[in-house]
């Protein structure tokens, strides 16, 4: 609950609880839709089939990591939020729209890797969606800073880590999208690398590993 | 948690937390169902197909904006609520019923734009659903005001903006439904315009744009 | 958050927040699954088809009212809960299992009304599921009373109304199930009547209507 | 809300509310996906068909109990959490990934019991998923203890019961997986026994039964 309902500089104050609850619901749905696709897929002929369908499972893991990473970044962002306003809520809806859209190109990428003719189009669409999630997330963060929506206690390590990783990741996506126009499968491998880079907290992991030794 | 459990004028007091949580879940589902339809749709033959299926993607965007707008209005409404009562909870269920129904006519409208023969029926059903969401939302607001369910701190800018836009939007829907009986595709364009009008916060946007210049 | 973490008479104290959040999620899913079936159903040939498929839409409305009613009763119950214990959480899972199962017999009943040969079996399965939701909900309430899980402030009007309606409704379900063995379509009409009886708050409605006249 | 935002030993403090909300959403989805499979399954020819499809319903009950049990254990764990950190949130995402994956092997096991040739592969995959849920859940608990994430008020009976049951259950899973390589159907029966063992709170049940006699 916000302390002062009407800030002098014009932005409206809304309870952020419902935005968080709604966002969690949509993130959870998006992740589950990925699994729904797994379940819908014809299981075919056991082990050798599962081995043959590896590109689909890789796309599944990339999308899971990407949505998981976007959720972590979103949590870190709203955690530091003192209030929201009308435009923030709408920007947030836009982020959710793209997140919940991701299972669709994920499905296409799996099909693309089977019918080689559409590989370039589908892999490019997939890369653009991944890029859009990252860029819109950063826009949400930039808007919150511009409108002074964050609380005084600072932005926290997780949010700063997301901000620090923004430029390398966006550069990586642009390179991967360009690479994908010629070599779609290499682009998928690059997306996987970028997803891992986004989610793994290198500093914290190093700290946790070396603290107890 | 309500401060005084039994108000003198007969309405019951219920914690509004669960109504909000349940409503957020259903809104989130409704939005995700739209994407599920996207994923179920046969992807066909890449780029030229995607270009050909534009009416489906437009209906998707309209429905997303409409559910997003209904969620924003719902948030603004419950944000100001001091308590709920039995009838309010049931009215709210009715709103959710129609919101979660929207993906169904959205799907029909996409099909309608392919088989021209059912265009009128399906586009009319779609328009009536959009209208019902708006009218039931306004009924919820009217009931809350009549039963004095709002807290003292007033209704807030977002809720007032929803109330101000009610008459123009309902008039717009009725006109679009009538237009749709003769020219279904024009009606879809009108629904898109109304959805944008509903969601864009003109005053806040103007304020945000001109404050920093 | 419970005030005293370990009550003397042996039951464990758990935060009830997560049980409510999880239950809301599952109730929301169950209601949405009903709509998913609507969307999956082949839409066929416009208006005359929609008119022909009326039994399906009736079953949809009955199930929606039943899940909505079960959610209202569940809310009223947990609203008065001071704490939960291990067995209560498991009983609650059982209630959710049956609630989330309801869309399945709903689908069967729609099919049953098309292929007359399975009508009796499917309508009976549907009735047994509706009965199970009501009986397990009452068991949850009885367990909470037996283990003194309710807070001091009493059970509230909504919960008492659910308790008052229990015997008539269960009697009604048993009669409808028996009737359904001979006349399945009459049973469906009875289920509709019982669903309306369960959800409509007669006292509150009368009070709201006559207060302002 | 955490009391002290920055602990001296380096771990970051994050609000645990959103982790709980997000986890509840994903658990709820996973359980609902099981039912979705029920609904997708062709209902065939009434009663004798339902009787013939018993292996599917058994797998459904096992998976429901397993996810329900994992949710109970997760609740007990987060209930005692004073704070979270970056790695804990990522470990939690990994647990959710496997939980939401379970409906997929559940579906395969149902198919396996029809086409005998893939029984071994599918039943083994199912067993490995059940094992992974349990092992990752225990890893989450171990990590929380190692990093002192639990609050002072202790771990509580439910969490201790989960810890006590860990070794017997994991041993049981390993035995069942090995048995399943030769006798898949026996393994399914063992998984059912282990699921019941995990969910039933023997001590509390005995206490509740004998207290009132």
From TrEMBL, chains A, B, C, D:
It comes from the Bacteria. Keywords: Ion channel, Ion transport, Membrane, Potassium, Potassium channel, Potassium transport, Transmembrane, Transmembrane helix, Transport. The chain crosses the membrane at residues 21-40, 52-75, 87-104, 124-144, 165-183. It is a multi-pass membrane protein. GO terms for cellular component: membrane. GO terms for molecular function: potassium channel activity; proton channel activity. It catalyses: K(+)(in) = K(+)(out). Its main location: membrane. Pfam families: TMEM175. Coiled coil: none annotated. It is found in: Membrane. Belongs to the TMEM175 family. This is DUF1211 domain-containing protein.
